[in-house]
Amino acid sequence: MSGADAPEILAAYEAVRSDKDATNWLLISYAAATGSQLALSKTGSGGLAELADELDDGQVQYAYVRVEYANDSESKRVKFAVVVWIGQGTKVMRKARAGIESGAVKKVLAHHSIQVDAGDKRDLDEAEIVARLRKAGGADYNGGRG
């Protein structure tokens, strides 16, 4: 097993999902330069911008993020996204295995509305992700304005 179901990853996942915890993202990285063992790298409460700052251009990493947005003045929505990060400097063999190994991660981080495949930190633009989450959520009370 890849270690995606390690107790510290599961605890961080529950923290991100909890309405009572400030943690809104977690980051999973490979424990070593070779092999498939995963480990929790970091957690944070600063949203997508903070998460993007933590991504390593030379690695494949997996993140789970809580995104909150308002549909109108009366409502707030909470949605979750899985981020599969493949940094532009990642070695070829690690990139090749990411598609297979991301399946184990997504089984553990099961409750998400969208998957964001990213290789550039600009792929984590909050406005674009919120627009995708709105579309995935079905009802759009914002009149299609994103």
UniProtKB/TrEMBL annotation:
Keywords: Actin-binding, Cytoplasm, Cytoskeleton
Alphabetical list of PROSITE patterns matching this protein: ADF_H
Cellular localisation: Cytoplasm, Cytoskeleton
GO MF terms, alphabetically ordered: actin filament binding
SMART domains associated with the record: ADF (SM00102)
SUPFAM superfamilies reported for this sequence: Actin depolymerizing proteins
Database matches in InterPro entries: ADF-H, ADF-H/Gelsolin-like_dom_sf
Record's GO cellular component terms: actin filament; cortical actin cytoskeleton; site of polarized growth
Domain ADF-H, residue spans: 1-134
Claim: Cytoplasm is one of the keywords in the record: yes
Annotated transmembrane regions: none
Keyword hit for Cytoplasm: yes
GO biological process per UniProt: regulation of actin filament polymerization
Family: Belongs to the actin-binding proteins ADF family. Coactosin subfamily.
Name of the protein described by the UniProt record: ADF-H domain-containing protein
Origin species: Lasiosphaeria hispida
